[in-house]
C-alpha cells in the first residue's frame, strides 16, 4: 500500500489521471472482441456552436456513467465522440465570429472560413469533455464535414434514391428570409407575436357579368377578417363553409385595391365561428392555403420573394382576371421591395395595405389588436414565409405507422418519453425536407443534364467515386457544358441522422465502406440524448435505419432533461444566469460537478445548484478521510484477500457486525447494478451513498474502532475480522463510486490497493465492477446489525436530548428484550460498549426491571417489536 498525501489536491490529481487514462488507452474499443461482448454507444455529436454550456456537462456526463459502468462490468465499450460541424449552425457561428455574412464571400472562401472556425471549436469541446472525464475513445472521433462523413452521407442518399424513398419537387416550403433557406417541419417553432384582426370588404359580382362594364362602387360587398392584408394581391379565392355556399351560388368575388376576380368555393375546413366565416385563400399564407390550392386546383400567384419582400416581377398582372390590370399594377408598385410585416415592423407591407384600404374606405370596422401564433425558424428566430422552391425530400408520410412500430421496438428510458415521438409522428403533415440553400454542408451527389433530349434528367454519382462535389467534379461521360451541378447542400440532420453509420462506416451491405465493421457496431446498444431533439435526432435516425435496412438504429434510448438556472428558468445570456462549465469545474473539481449531474433523475430537468455541489464536496472529503483513516491498519493484512466470501469461508471474517456490513454491501452492489442496468444512475448513486454514509461511516467504522485499536492477543482474531471487512468495504465502495467520481476513486484505489491496481491498470478497467457473488448475504447477521444500529441510534438520541457528546460516559445500560433478541445483542456487545462509551450492559426479560434515574448513572433501553422494526 502506498501512503496517501495528507490532503487531496483535486485539480492536480484530476489532470494527472486524465492524461494517464488517455496514454494508457483504458477506454479504447477493441475491434477483435466479439459483438456479444461489446457495448456500443451512439454518442450525440454536439453542434459546434461555439458556446460551451452546463447542458453539455449535464447530459454527456450522465451518458458517461453508463459507459463506465458497462466497461467495468466487462463490456468492450465502443464510445466515440463526434462533432456536428457542418450546416447552418456553423455558418451562423462563423458569421458571428468573423463579423461578416456568407453572401459577401465566394463559396470557396466562406467554406475555408468555416473550416478554420470549426477546427478551433472542436478543440474547445474536446478540452471540456476531457476535463469532465468523459471516457470516450478518441480514436473513434468523427466530424460531420469530413471526407469519411460526406462519403457515408452521400451513400445514404444514393441508397434512398435507388429505393425511390427520396425525391425532388417544386412545392411551397417554409422559407427563412434571414438564413435564406428552406427548413424542415422539425425546425419550426411557434411564437406568440403582436398582430391585428383586420376586417376588409370584398366585392361580389354575378358569374355572368362582364368585367369590362363592372364597377366596384356598384357591387354588393362581403366582409372578411384577415391578419395578413399584405397578401391581398396573392388572393386566389374566397372560401366559405358548405353550409353557407348557397348564399354565394353564381357569384364571384372581387379583391379590394387590386380588383382581381376570384372564385368563391366551399370547404369544410372553414370555421364558421371564426372571423366572419368567409376566408381569403392566398398563395401562400399558411398550410391551409396550400391544402385549398391543391384540392381545388386554384391559380398560384407569388408576390413575396426569398428576402421576404413584395416584388412585382413575381406577379403577372397582365394575365390576371381583373377589372383593371393597369390600375392593379400601379397600386402594387407602391409595395415594390417593401418587406412583409413579419420582417420589418416600421415600414411594412401590412401597414401600407391597411393605410390604402382605409384611405379607399375598404375596411369594415376598426382593426383589433391581438396576439397570435406565428411559425418561426428555430435557429434564426425569423417568422417564415411559404414560397414554392425546388427541394429534396425523404419520404416519411408514407411510413408513419411503420416508423411508430420501429420506435416501439426500442427501449425508452424513461418509458414515457416514447409518447413524444409517437405524437410527433402522428402530427407530421409533410415529408422531410433535407436540402438547404447554403454553403457549408454535404453536397448532393447529383447533376442535371443539359443534353438535347434529356434536359433536366437527374444524374447520380457513381458510389465508388464518393465523396464528390458536383460543383467541381463531373459525372462519367459528361462534359462541364453538358450538366448543371446541384448547388444545394444537405441539412445537417441528414448527416447526423446516420451517426450510428458514421461510426460503423456503412449504410448497409450494398452501400458500405467497411461492412464487417458495420456488423460489429450496428445497431448500437444505446443512444443517449436530450428530450428536445426527440423529434429531430431520434426520429431522423429511426427513419434512416428503417429505410436503409428495415432495422432499428439502437436497442435503448436514454433521454436526459435540461440543465436550468438556479431559479429553474432557462439559462440565457440576456438573463445573466448562464453558468460557465470551465469555471465551475475549476472551482469545484470535475468529480464534484459529475456528482451534481448524478443527482438528477433520468429525463427530468434539473436546476443548477451550488448546494448540491457542496454535498458533492462533502462526499469527496469524507471519502478521502474515511479511506485515509481506514488505511492505517490495512498494511497489517499479510496477503491480498481474494474475496469477502473466501474470508468468511476461511473464518477470517467472523464477527456478526462484520458480516452485517458485508451482507449490506452485497445487497448494495446487487441493487446498484440493477438500477444502472436500467440506466437509473441517480437511484444507483443514492443506494451507494446510503451504504457509504449510513452503514460504513456513521455506524460500522464507529462501532469497530475499539476492535481496530485493540492490539491485545485475545482480540487478534476480532481485530483482523474488522480489518479485512474494512478492506472489502473500501474496495467495494471505491469501485461502486468510480463511474460517478472517477478521479478520486482512481487516486485512492491506486494507493490503498496498489497491488490490485497494478494488475488491472485502472479502477475503470474492463470487468472490474464488484460482483455481489463475491460477498455473502447473511440475513441473521443483518438482523443483528440492524438491532445494533437501532440501539445505537436510541442511545445517540438520549445523549443528544441531554446535549452531550456520543462519547459521554455511561455507567450502565440495561436492555429489556425477549431472549432471542438478547442473544443477538450479545453478538455485538463489545462493539456496542466501545462506541457508546458504556462501562457495562445487562439484560432482562421484556418488561422486567426498574427504570433508574440519572443519565450519568445509567440508561434504560427497552427493545421490543417496535424497536426491532426501527
In short:
The chain is α/β, with parallel strands linked by helices and 870 residues long. α2 (54-72) links the parallel β1 and β2.
Outline the structure in words.
The structure is a single chain. By secondary structure, the protein is of the alpha/beta class. Among the domains are: 180 residues, Isoleucyl-tRNA Synthetase, domain 2, CATH 3.90.740.10; 43 residues, no CATH class; 154 residues, Isoleucyl-tRNA Synthetase, Domain 1; 86 residues. The chain contains 28 helices and 28 strands. It is elongated.
Helices and strands in order:
Layout: H1 10-24, E1 38-40, H2 54-72, E2 76-78, E3 82-83, H3 88-98, H4 107-131, E4 142-143, H5 147-162, E5 166-176, E6 181-182, E7 188-206, E8 220-226, E9 235-240, E10 251-254, E11 261-266, E12 278-282, H6 287-295, H7 325-332, H8 349-359, E13 363-377, E14 385-394, H9 400-409, E15 411-413, H10 418-427, E16 432-433, E17 435-436, E18 446-449, E19 458-460, E20 483-485, E21 489-490, H11 492-496, H12 499-504, H13 515-521, E22 524-530, H14 534-549, E23 554-560, E24 563-564, H15 581-588, H16 590-598, E25 606-607, H17 610-630, H18 644-649, H19 656-677, H20 681-703, H21 705-709, H22 716-737, H23 742-752, H24 754-760, H25 779-801, E26 810-816, H26 819-826, H27 829-836, E27 838-844, E28 859-862, H28 865-869
Parallel strand pairs: 1-2, 3-4, 9-11, 15-23, 22-23, 24-25, 26-27, 26-28
Antiparallel strand pairs: 5-6, 5-14, 7-8, 7-10, 7-13, 9-12, 10-11, 14-16, 17-21, 18-19, 18-20
Helix pairs in contact: 1-23, 2-16, 3-4, 9-10, 9-14, 10-14, 15-16, 16-17, 19-20, 19-22, 19-25, 20-22, 22-23, 23-24
